[in-house]
Structures are given as structure tokens and as C-alpha cells.
């Protein structure tokens, strides 16, 4: 979505009623953020809306990017938020071979998640329970981590459920919404 460098468009202040709606939508999508929501989106602070190309809305607090949304799609966190609160989002892990493709903006394919280095929910090798036990449905926003790396490298939306991924082990798994080094990551506000 943000393969090329992008320039921010018009910046406007978000009305308090709309701000409450956005805040609730974030909590509905990411319930584990509830203890931190006051740190992320304080009620007394002014939220700004920055228009980006291709009908993308970026919500910011001063010059800190928080969440973005393409038209009426799911609201996705900026990687800066994911790096600050990594345990609050559903996550998957790709193997080492898929890293360069993900960081070049390619659609994430199922073999990168189902190979020995990848992790999906319910994986017996996930002894910490970091990737969850419940299967994720298609359309679920997820954070993608890379094997051997500490920080997340991508945020996207699943194209197929994780149960189907485990069964077929091929095809497109996740659309790249935002990844390290893309236009949204390098955008200066």
C-alpha cells in the first residue's frame, strides 16, 4: 500500500465525538490495548487526521502517527505503536526466507508462515503462548514478526484464516498494509 515515498496531504483536527468513535473502534479491534489507551490516545489531547494518497487516513497525536485506515477497512496500528505495545496485537511469525520479500512490499504468502521458522496460533513449538491458541479468521488485522528479530516488521490483514493456511500451506496469506521502510514509515509529519 505504501511502497513509494508519500507526502502528507491536508491535516485537520478531529472533532471530539469522532475522536471517541475512533477510540472505541480501536478498543473493539484491539481489546488488549485497553490498559494503555489513555497513554496512546488521551481524552484531553487533540487528535489530528492527515490525509494520505489512495484515500488513506492517518490519525496522529501531535507528530506521532498512531493508526491508519484505508476508506472503511479495518483500522491498523502504525508500527511505532506496535513496537511500544507489542503484546497487545494478534501476531504471527515469518521464517527468515520471507523477510526480504515482506520488506520489499510483497504480499505475504502462506509458506513463510507454515514453514519450520514460522509461527501460527496453536503452534506446539510456541512454548510461551506468544502467538495465541485460537485460530484467526480472514480479515483479522495482524502484526507480523520475523524469525530471529525482536521488533515487528509488518502490519496487515489476513486474506485467509490460519486454520486454512495450516491445511493448504500455499497461496496468499496476508496483505501488506504497512512494513518497515515503506512510505508510511519514512513519512515526516
Explain this structure:
With 189 residues, this protein is α+β, with helices and mostly antiparallel strands. It folds into 2 domains: 11-84, Sulfate adenylyltransferase, CATH 3.10.400.20; 88-183, Sulfate adenylyltransferase (Roll). Helix content is 23%, strand content 27%. The protein is built from 7 helices and 10 strands. The chain has helices at residues 16-29, 37-40, 79-84, 99-102, 111-114, 162-168, 183-186; strands at residues 11-13, 47-52, 56-61, 64-70, 76-77, 91-94, 108-109, 141-146, 152-158, 172-179. The strands form 2 sheets. A 5-stranded antiparallel β-sheet has the order 1-2-3-4-5. Strand 8 and strand 9 form a beta hairpin. The longest helix has 14 residues, at 16-29. It is globular. The mean pLDDT is 92. It is found in: Cytoplasm. Pfam families: Pre-PUA, PUA. Residues 90-181 form the PUA domain. Belongs to the TMA20 family. Its main location: cytoplasm.
Question: What's the helix and strand layout?
Answer:
Elements: E1 11-13, H1 16-29, H2 37-40, E2 47-52, E3 56-61, E4 64-70, E5 76-77, H3 79-84, E6 91-94, H4 99-102, E7 108-109, H5 111-114, E8 141-146, E9 152-158, H6 162-168, E10 172-179, H7 183-186
Parallel strand pairs: 6-8
Antiparallel strand pairs: 1-2, 2-3, 3-4, 4-5, 7-10, 8-9, 9-10
Concise account of the structure shown:
By secondary structure, the protein is an alpha+beta fold.
The first-level CATH class of the largest domain is given as Alpha Beta
Low-pLDDT residue spans: none
Provide the domain count: 2
CATH fold naming of the largest domain: Sulfate adenylyltransferase
The helical percent reads 10-25%
Global shape = globular
- What share of residues are in beta strands? 25-35%
Query: Structural class, from helix and strand content?
Result: alpha+beta
Q: If classified by CATH, what would the architecture of the largest domain be?
A: Roll
Q: Write the element-wise H/E pattern from the N-terminal end onward.
A: EHHEEEEHEHEHEEHEH
Strand order of the largest sheet: 1-2-3-4-5
Rg from Cα: 16 Å
Domain PUA: 90-181
Subcellular location: Cytoplasm
Main location: cytoplasm
GO biological process, one term: formation of translation preinitiation complex
Amino acid at each position: 500500500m505504501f511502497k513509494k515515498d508519500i507526502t502528507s496531504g491536508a491535516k485537520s483536527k478531529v472533532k471530539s465525538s469522532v475522536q471517541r468513535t475512533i477510540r472505541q473502534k480501536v478498543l473493539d479491534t484491539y481489546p488488549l490495548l485497553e490498559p494503555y489507551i489513555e497513554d496512546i490516545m488521551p481524552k484531553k489531547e487533540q487528535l489530528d487526521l492527515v490525509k494520505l494518497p489512495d484515500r488513506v487516513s492517518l490519525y496522529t497525536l501531535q507528530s506521532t502517527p498512531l493508526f491508519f485506515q484505508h476508506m472503511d477497512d479495518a483500522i491498523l496500528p502504525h508500527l511505532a505503536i506496535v513496537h511500544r505495545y507489542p503484546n497487545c496485537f494478534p501476531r504471527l511469525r515469518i521464517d527468515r526466507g520471507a523477510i526480504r520479500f515482506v520488506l520489499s512490499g510483497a504480499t505475504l504468502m502462506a509458506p513463510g508462515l507454515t514453514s519450520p521458522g514460522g509461527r501460527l496460533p496453536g503452534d506446539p513449538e510456541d512454548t510461551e503462548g506468544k502467538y495465541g491458541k485460537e485460530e484467526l479468521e480472514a480479515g483479522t488485522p495482524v502484526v507480523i514478526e520475523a524469525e530471529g528479530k525482536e521488533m515487528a516488521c509488518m502490519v496487515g490483514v489476513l486474506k485467509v484464516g490460519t486454520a486454512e493456511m495450516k491445511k493448504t500451506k500455499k497461496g496468499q496469506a496476508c496483505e501488506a498494509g504497512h512494513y518497515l521502510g515503506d512510505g508510511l514509515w519514512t513519512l515526516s509529519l
